[in-house]
Amino acid sequence: MITRIDHVGIACRNLEESIEFYRVTFGFEVYHTEVNEQQGVREAMLRINGTDDGGSSYLQLLEPIREDSPIAKFLEKNGEGVHHVAFGTADVVGETQAAVDAGVRALYPEPRHGTFGSSINFLHPKDCHGILTELVQAPDAGSHGADRH
Ligand code: MC0
């Protein structure tokens, strides 16, 4: 079951400038920052609210650290903007399989490492009406771990 919007991922050219924009305009504070070498990003999580299932919802600001990363490619083509929407679930493997069974391509055969040690997979935007869709399982939810490659 999908229980919340975990985060909205936003591609940005300069992480500090984007953080400052959200702080000054909306009062959002940085909850967590991290570099994900595998995904080629430096990121900041801005916590928006808690949710009924005990999880939270975030804005995820993403700055590329490599020219060949998905975020760099996206910025080159589209400029700054919404890059993906991520749904939270206690079972990323099960939800990915359900999407595959519904005819949607998953981008990874197994979950990978996401923010806060979460387990993630992505669904192809061309199969999701133009939205790159991420499935996120928090580290303490369910029993499936990421491969951390
Ligand atoms: C590409 N396309 C998108 C898109 N990225 N459509 C909507 N939203 C996006 N974000 C479209 C392109 O416009 C193009 O359409 C077609 O998909 C192929 O794209 P491409 O630019 O030629 O690039 P590909 O095929 O090499 O790669 C696209 C793909 C890739 C989605 C497979 O970006 C990918 O593997 N993404 C998953 C990983 C990721 O995004 N990591 C960064 C966030 P046309 O019509 O022109 O053919 S990391 C993250 O978020 C982690 C840390 C976390 O949350 O914990």
What does this structure look like?
By secondary structure, the protein is α+β, with helices and mostly antiparallel strands. The protein has one domain (2-143): 2,3-Dihydroxybiphenyl 1,2-Dioxygenase, domain 1 (Roll), CATH 3.10.180. It has three helices and eight strands, in the order βαβββαβαβββ. It has an eight-stranded mixed sheet with strand order 2-3-4-1-5-8-7-6. The radius of gyration is 15 Å and the shape is globular. The structure holds (S)-Methylmalonyl-Coenzyme A. (S)-Methylmalonyl-Coenzyme A binds next to strand 3, strand 4, helix 2, strand 5 and strand 7. (S)-Methylmalonyl-Coenzyme A binds at residues 9, 36, 39, 41, 43, 60, 62, 70-71, 73-74, 83-84, 86, 107, 114-115, 120, 122, 125-126, 130, 132, 134.
